[in-house]
Amino acid sequence: MKRTMKKRLCLFVVATPLLFPSKIMAQDKVVVNTGADLVSGIYWRSQNLGGMSIFCF
């Protein structure tokens, strides 16, 4: 029974890329997005964690 399961798993691993081919394409440019938010207060799980803050992302 274990051999049958291993055979099925091997078949699945081998067949999956053949059934769902994917294209990998190079990106021409690197895109970077930045930003900042000014918030009047930070609340997390009903706790006040601070006053005015700036979040950078």
Q: Which percent bin holds the helix content?
A: 25-40%
Largest sheet: 2 strands, antiparallel
Along the chain, the helix and strand elements come as HEEEE
Strand order of the largest sheet: 1-4
Oligomer class: single chain
**Overall pLDDT, averaged?**
76
- How many beta-strand elements? 4
Q: Could you say which overall geometry the principal axes of the C-alpha atoms support?
A: elongated
Number of helices: 1
Which regions are unreliable across 5 or more consecutive residues at pLDDT < 50? none
Summarize the topology.
Elements (H helix, E strand, L loop, with lengths): L1 H18 L16 E4 L2 E3 L2 E4 L2 E4 L1
Antiparallel strand pairs: 1-4, 2-3
Q: What tags apply to this protein structure?
A:
57 residues, 4 strands
Please characterize this protein's 3D structure.
The chain has one helix spanning 2-19; strands spanning 36-39, 42-44, 47-50, 53-56. Helix content is 32%, strand content 26%. Strand 2 (42-44) and strand 3 form a beta hairpin. The chain is built from 1 helix and 4 strands. It has a domain at 25-57. The longest helix is centred in the N-terminal third of the chain and has 18 residues, at 2-19. A two-stranded antiparallel sheet has the order 1-4. Strands 2-3 form a two-stranded antiparallel sheet. It is elongated and about 60 Å long. The relative contact order is 0.14. It is α+β, with helices and mostly antiparallel strands.
